[in-house]
Write a structure and sequence with these properties.
Distance between the termini: 55 Å
Number of strands: 30
Radius of gyration: 20 Å
Order of helices and strands: EEEEEEEEEEEEEEEEEEEEEEEEEEEEEE
Mean pLDDT: 86
Low-confidence stretches: 1-26, 48-55, 68-72
Number of helices: 0
Strand content: over 45%
Helix content: under 10%
Largest sheet: 19 strands, parallel
């Protein structure tokens, strides 16, 4: 049957979490080197004692859970509970879940496959993104990547999230109370339609982010701050600011352009560029707010 690797610590062993001077250890689980679970699952849990730790799970090495079936490529679960999770190594599986009080990603999370897999990263408080997350489909559709944070989501320009597919693009969802991002997002459809990229929260600031949901047969969908006219389907942001280094691409090289929405409940500032061109017709772009629409550089929004 499937292999299963589980690393955790019961409450009865809490005394082992302090040194001779009674100081809490800096890391409850430190997964260095390389851990392989062929055809199985890897589960690292620090929930029982995470309240003692500033960093409950640290992964500087490689965790690989693979399978002989390309439809079920294994699972990796990092559960830090109220503590923190830091990943600077490489995680590879068909389905990856990371959760902690605070989460920092500086390594790589790989859920690539014939069809892209799924990556879910959730932080109760703050989430730092500075690594590479991939759920690409090498011969089918792209997968799904979800980021969520109860506090701030801060993303550097080194951060790359790719859910592109050889056929249709996949889906990327980003949600946090406050977002400050210079990251790179891709949900391209190489031969089919572009995918979907959603970025929203309480306040959204894109400094130099790049969002690409372009497609061959049809442009995809990018929504920043809310759905069309703030409607159902996506929680609306209070404020949205897109700097002049931001680009949104929902173009199509063989079909009609896609849809790009930039929306806020209170204040929208749009200085970035949008490409919604299509070989068989331009797409649709909405930049608006329920209250105040500030600067919009219309020269950088192209639909035809």
């Amino acid at each position: 049957g499937d292999g299963f690797l589980s690393v955790g610590l019961p409450v009865s062993e809490l005394s082992d979490l302090v040194d001779a001077n009674g100081h809490a250890l800096s890391s409850l689980i430190d997964a260095g080197g390389a851990v392989h679970a062929e055809g199985g699952r890897i589960y690292l849990s620090a929930e029982a004692a995470s309240s003692l730790m500033m960093r409950a799970i640290n992964v500087p090495g490689d965790l690989i859970a693979s399978s002989v079936s390309h439809d079920a490529q294994g699972n990796i679960v990092l559960e830090a509970g109220a503590g923190g999770a830091t990943v600077t190594g490489n995680l590879s599986a068909g389905h990856i879940d990371v959760h902690g009080g605070n989460v920092a990603l500086g390594g790589s999370l790989n859920a690539d496959g014939v069809n892209g897999g799924a990556v879910n990263v959730a932080s109760d408080h703050d989430l730092l993104l500075a690594g590479h997350t991939s759920a690409r489909g090498s011969n089918g559709a792209g997968g799904a990547v979800n980021y969520s944070a109860g506090g701030q989501l801060i993303e550097t320009s080194a951060s790359v999230t790719d859910a592109s597919g050889a056929q249709a693009g996949g889906a990327i969802s980003v949600n946090a109370n406050d977002i400050l991002s210079s990251g790179n997002y891709a949900a391209r459809g190489v031969t089919g339609a572009g995918g979907r990229i959603d970025v929203t929260g309480g306040n959204v600031t894109l400094a130099s982010a790049h969002l690409d949901a372009s497609g061959r047969s049809q442009g995809g969908l990018v929504r920043v701050g809310g759905a069309y006219q703030g409607g159902a389907g996506l929680a609306p942001a209070s404020s949205v600011f897109l700097n002049d280094g931001v680009t949104i691409n929902v173009s199509s090289s063989g079909g009609a352009g896609g849809t790009a929405i930039v929306w806020s409940q209170n204040e929208t500032t749009m200085l970035g560029g949008v490409d919604a061109r299509g070989q068989r017709g331009g797409g649709f772009v909405e930049v608006s707010s329920a209250d105040t629409l500030r600067t919009v550089d219309l020269s950088r929004i192209v639909t035809g």
